[in-house]
Design a protein that fits this description.
Layout lengths: L7 H19 L12 H18 L5 H11 L5 H4 L3 H13 L3 H26 L2 H13 L1 H7 L5 H21 L2 H15 L8 H13 L7 H33 L8 H14 L1 H17 L4 H18 L12 H15 L3 H23 L6 E2 L1 H11 L3 E6 L3 H10 L6 E4 L4 E4 L1 E8 L4 H11 L1 E7 L7 H9 L5 E8 L1 E2 L8 E7 L9 E4 L8 E4 L10
Helix pairs in contact: 1-6, 1-7, 2-5, 2-19, 5-6, 6-7, 6-9, 7-16, 7-17, 9-10, 9-11, 10-12, 11-15, 13-14, 13-15, 14-16, 15-16, 16-17, 18-19
Length: about 550
């Protein structure tokens, strides 16, 4: 049966869920640096950019400021490629707590806890408080979800926004309260301003709306107003994306990583790995039996959620198993309904509760032993570089360049250093999207060093070399004009290849830049970024 008014038991259960989730997520929060999927460190650097943007408030020339910032810290893929909402919260975390790895992870914790709260409220509304506590704890502790609660990625912020939007939308469908549709408009807009995958909310709303109210539902005044609110909030960003970044977005949408029926089975095959066979089995049984225990229309709404995610994500060319995270909640709803509402006889109720406790216990044990992917060593080489000079231009050629850039900015409050990441070659986001090699010979590299005033060079010693210029650079560094200042072993559980080092060299022939402009090759835009060297006066003198 459904719960009635909010009471102390509901409060106690929710606080217990939040406490369990917080302990599991915070475990090991200080361990290691960013590593997941390359994107993690880029999200962190973009948060630093937002924090600096707030400090500097360059209202007169925001575009010029952004170009100059990217020229100095070239790891801002979060600008345009991903929507801005999360970076605003992350930038606030850096302003309050300082520019650290822990601060970035605490920003994710904030969204994870909010997601647990809204999922608890939704399941309590549809089932009861015990099912709500079980399902909210299970959602927070699942390894496939916990991974992203411990990493600085956009999955958890988007999941929270989508759960909040679903909460208000479902309440509107079932109760017709006008304020819920406006809260839905705000939270759905927040989802689409967090990550583009939130677009699945559109087919979800269409399918569930047709199921519950027919096509006339979408002609109600409050629904039309809600659509207008969403359009006003999200149109500026997506108009900018279309104008500046449409080719790169189209690359992801049209990516052909698999052919034929494989694309339609990709996420079906990914489900067991993301949910686990036990939870998947309970969810499927819950779907089959939902007609006997669920409120009217709710099973159809939850199935609309699942189908909308499946259809939307399958049609997008770029596919990864982690995107199943957006339709884990409805499977958990069906499993919770089976365990807490299906059984009528007392002994079967006890058996259902015991199964829920066992499943939650094993999930908690797995969560306690879970270790997030991480690397170590980038902070050390950044600190060593900062000790060598008050300011300098650094060329970096190694894995996870955004990791190095994050620490160069975080450990340099005066912003006296500039990192060259795209001097030898440039990718269009990733290698499969296209690339270009910018230099080819030792003479061209030496000319580059002279024109851009490169004093320090950081290279990896064992990472795969994809361009001839990388090999040429390493040969050049063995000549007498370059001095090795130190080797810094990279560690962690997410490093490839293992047992590799970052090596710091000094260019003994270093001099201030002789070129007039610093040019950054941009394959994701219609033009390169060109910044005058006199924009960085601290780098103009020896």
């Amino acid at each position: 049966p459904r719960s009635g008014r909010w009471d102390r038991r509901s409060t106690g259960l929710l606080l217990c869920v939040l406490a369990i989730a917080m302990v599991a997520i915070l475990r090991g929060i200080r361990v290691g640096e960013f590593s997941y999927n390359v994107d993690e460190a880029q999200h962190a650097v973009t948060g630093l950019y937002v924090a600096d943007l707030v400090r500097d408030h360059p209202f007169a020339n925001p575009v010029e400021y952004t170009y100059r910032y990217y020229a100095q810290y070239p790891a801002l893929s979060g600008i345009i490629h991903w929507p801005p909402l999360f970076y605003c919260f992350e930038g606030l975390a850096f302003l309050v707590l300082g520019p650290t790895v822990v601060a970035a992870r605490l920003a994710i914790l904030f969204f994870a806890l909010l997601g647990a709260v809204f999922w608890f409220l939704l399941v309590r509304e549809l089932l009861n408080e015990w099912a709500a506590a079980f399902s909210a704890a299970l959602l927070a502790l699942l390894p496939s979800v916990l991974l992203f609660e411990k990493t600085v990625m956009l999955e958890i912020p988007l999941l929270f926004c989508c759960i909040a939007a679903s909460f208000f939308w479902i309440r509107y469908l079932l109760k017709g309260k006008e304020s819920d549709i406006y809260w839905f408009a705000l939270s759905a807009s927040a989802a689409l301003l967090t990550k583009q995958n939130g677009v699945y909310l559109i087919p979800f709303c269409v399918l569930s709306g047709l199921l519950c109210g027919g096509w006339k539902l979408f002609l109600r005044k409050e629904v039309l107003r809600a659509v207008a609110i969403c359009f006003v909030l999200i149109a500026p960003f997506y108009t900018l994306v279309y104008a500046v970044h449409r080719k790169t977005i189209a690359m992801d949408l049209a990516e052909k990583s698999m052919a034929g029926g494989s694309r339609w089975l990709f996420y079906v095959k990914a489900l067991p790995g993301q949910l686990g066979w036990s939870l998947l089995g309970l969810g499927l049984l819950g779907i089959l039996t939902s007609g006997t225990w669920a409120r009217a229309k709710v099973p159809g709404i939850m199935l609309s959620w699942i189908f909308a995610c499946y259809l939307t994500l399958t049609l997008i060319g770029h596919k990864e198993p982690r995107y199943v995270i957006y339709w884990i909640p409805p499977f958990i709803y069906f499993a919770s309904g089976l365990l807490f509402c299906f059984f009528r006889k007392p002994w079967l109720k006890v058996a259902g509760a015991a199964a829920a406790v066992a499943l939650l216990g094993t999930t908690l044990a797995s969560a306690w032993s879970f270790h997030r992917p991480y690397v170590t060593g980038f902070d050390a080489v950044a600190k060593k570089t900062l000790e060598q000079s008050k300011s300098a231009v650094i060329l970096f050629d190694g894995p996870l360049p955004a990791n190095f850039i994050f620490f160069m900015r975080a450990d340099d409050p005066g912003r006296q250093f500039l990192v060259l990441r795209k001097a030898l070659y440039a990718y269009q986001i990733k290698k499969s999207g296209g690339s270009v090699e910018l230099v080819h010979t030792q003479q061209e590299i030496e000319d580059l060093f002279r024109e851009d005033g490169v004093r320090f060079i950081v290279v990896s010693d064992r990472a795969p070399l994809n361009f001839e210029s990388q090999k040429v650079l390493r040969d050049l560094l063995q000549t007498p004009s370059y001095k090795e200042l130190g080797r810094f072993p990279l560690g962690g559980n997410d490093l490839y290849p293992p047992h590799s080092d970052l090596v710091l060299y000094e260019n003994l022939k270093w001099a201030p830049p002789t070129g007039k402009y610093l040019r950054i090759k941009m394959l994701t835009m219609s033009h390169d970024i060109v910044v005058p060297w006199d924009s960085f006066p601290v780098l103009q003198s020896k």
